[in-house]
Amino acid sequence: MPKPVIEVEKLAKSFGDNAVLKDITEQVNPGQVIVVIGPSGGGKSTFLRCLNLLETPTSGKVAFEGHDLTTMDTKSVNSLREKMGMVFQGFNLFPNMTVLENIKLAPMKVKHADDASATKQAHELLQRVGLDDHADAFPDSLSGGQAQRVAIARALAMNPEVMLFDEPTSALDPEMVGEVLNVMQELAKDGMTMVVVTHEMGFAKSVGDRIWFMADGYIQENSTPEKFFANPETDRAKDFLSKILM
Amino acid sequence: MKKKIGLLLAMLAALVMMVGVFGNPTQVQAADNSLAKIQKKGVLVMGTSPDYPPYEFQATVKGKSAVVGMDVKIGEKVAKDLGVKLKIKSMSFDSLLVALQTGKIDMIISGMNPTPARRKNVDFTHTYYKGGYEIVINKTDKGKYKNKDSFSGGTLGAQTGTTQYNAAKKQTKNTKVKGMTSQSDLILALQSHKLDGVAMEKPSAEAYVSNNKQLAAIPSDFSMSSSATSSAIAFRKGSTSLVNKVNKTVDQIKKENLVKKEYLPAAGKYLKTNTVNTSMGHYWKAFLTGIEYTLIITVCSVFFGFIIGVLLALARLAKGNFLKSLLRWIATAYVEFIRGTPMMVQVMFVYFGLGLFVNLPALTSGIIAISLNSGAYVAEYIRGGINSVDIGQTEAARSLGMSNGETMRFVVLPQALKNIWPSLGNEFITLIKDSSIVSIIGVTELIYQSNIVRSDTYRGVAPIVVIMVLYFVLTFTASRILNYFERKMQHA
């Protein structure tokens, strides 16, 4: 049994009186693609953001490679975040920098890579997501699909061990969803450990190793895609699937 | 006599007293070693307000601008008799008393008359000159006016707060009295017939008349006490030994009638050379100095103001533990306080108030005050700019492993700056103009220089037009440069 990359123990998160995450204990093993699905407002995004401490958990433990992030000093949290790339629904590219500069920024400022090697790496990543010809473009000239692929390349530039995807295709026009999912699929094939919050059931089925079904602040089901989509155990999951599948 | 006990002075006196509470200046009742101290220092610093020919004024001596006049001659004689060097510090008349009390200068020779009110705060020597008052009129009105009583139904002008201003108010009937701060403005008003006559001291009146063929002088016939018509040298309170020593010099000056025999004629010579060429081009050097200092003050203040602004903005955005809350509170209080008090008062506070603890030169004080002031405004712009950057930008940067500081520096601030660039540009252009405030502490920037040129040339409007154009050239160039960078920042 390999050592888990991420371990979550009794995780809870409230915003004021509103308990969004109630009691979550799960783990992510190396190379696994976890797809988190569930109804809106079920705490999926909050859960993902607790994994790299963009949200501070109210209680419980989040450990990365055995190190508990919730008890760490800020500096160590910063350096562990490098190892968890994150892709946002809204891309969050830096609008005042070119595509290339977007990708080079963190390696150069955080890892102190020299310009030449950072540029070389950025071009390689852009080739990987099929956008090397847009290296000198500014983000606002890109389509949504292109922007999200750049965002993925930017996250990969830090050589993360885990990639977190927060509804990466939700803000895209339908015809652009495919290009982004393809890149993600390639990543999964290369063995990247991934936690993906998404509504793309097709992707969940074909790429996911595990489905975590989340609702009402709990992970209600943790099973394989085959089993989950064919034979959901809980009523909550059955209800959810009946609404989204035709 | 110049006798401006204005509101400013009262305000400053209060300020000096306030500062005195938490760091008592030593001068007041200290043992009298004033004479020994000056002699040990070897330098006697004379404060004067060089806009009052022939007492003191700015003139070009051997190609350089210098303060000359009969008071300067007296200062030189005093220093010589004490066996020390004379150093002259120029500042506005309003500032002289405070400068003396705060140790910026050692004595005042600036046509100052030893009124009882002033005697409370400083020690005066014997009087060295007794003047009188005349009224300057347009030559075309000669014969129409004889003395102060001829202006019934008309308007008399005088320098605000001076003895002659009070006399004109009290000793005339049916006459309007209009006060202005500057002698040259009054003459200008006279020539444009807004005034019928200007009351001023005899030597000044004579200087104006001899330099301007359209003017004439008539006797004023004001009845005055002698303390209101004579000038004396002021020293810090309690400087008995120094005053006694200088009194010997003053007595000698009076006995030998040096003022009339030597000093006034010598001052008159400069006045003559001054009037040979009163074209603005002749004074290009004065204006150039003005531009130079205006730019020095502006550039330095923009630079330091920006740094202060960024730090304040970050402090105001600090959230978290007690220390951070305290920091935020201090920054907020600072911003509110600076925005709630006039910059002029801040400039005077830094120069005179802080002057009690550290002796800062006027230029440095000006830059410090304006930077501190500008910082408060810049902080608010920057805070707004930071808040305008989408939180997703911060999250993206943090998720890449960047620290809080790195995120601020490389991601948020550049975008905030772009958003607030037009407001910042506005602030910088305002600063070019606001730098003029430091003229009150004697920094030779554009306004100060133009005042010098005005009192030098007896021309009221031309220097104003010149600096108006110069200011516009400066601000317009600055706004072009800012626009260029704004365009550079707009991508795609």
Automatic annotation (TrEMBL), chain A:
UniProt GO MF annotations: ATP binding
Superkingdom, taxonomy of origin: Bacteria
Alphabetized InterPro entries for the sequence: AAA+_ATPase, ABC_ATPase_HisP-typ, ABC_transporter-like_ATP-bd, ABC_transporter-like_CS, MetN_ABC_transporter-like, P-loop_NTPase
Alphabetized Gene3D superfamilies for the sequence: P-loop containing nucleotide triphosphate hydrolases (3.40.50.300)
Record keywords: Amino-acid transport, ATP-binding, Cell membrane, Membrane, Nucleotide-binding, Transport
ABC transporter domain sequence ranges: 6-241
SMART domains named among the record's database cross-references: AAA
Subcellular location: Cell membrane
Membrane topology qualifier: Peripheral membrane protein
PANTHER family hit by this protein: AMINO ACID IMPORT ATP-BINDING PROTEIN (PTHR43166), GLUTAMATE_ASPARTATE IMPORT ATP-BINDING PROTEIN GLTL (PTHR43166:SF9)
Family to which the UniProt record says this protein belongs: Belongs to the ABC transporter superfamily.
Full protein name: Amino acid ABC transporter ATP-binding protein
Species this protein is from: Lactiplantibacillus dongliensis
Lineage summary: Bacteria, Bacillati, Bacillota, Bacilli, Lactobacillales
Automatic annotation (TrEMBL), chain B:
Transmembrane regions listed in the UniProt entry: 295-318, 349-372, 461-482
Intracellular or extracellular location(s): Cell membrane
Family that this chain belongs to: Belongs to the binding-protein-dependent transport system permease family. HisMQ subfamily.
Domain spans labelled ABC transmembrane type-1: 291-482
Record CDD domains: TM_PBP2
Source species of the chain: Lactiplantibacillus songbeiensis
Name by which UniProt lists this protein: ABC transporter substrate-binding protein/permease
Stored InterPro entries: AA_ABC_transptr_permease_3TM, ArtM/GltK/GlnP/TcyL/YhdX-like, MetI-like, MetI-like_sf, Solute-binding_3/MltF_N
One Pfam family it belongs to: BPD_transp_1
Range of residues in the leader sequence: 1-30
Entry membrane topology: Multi-pass membrane protein
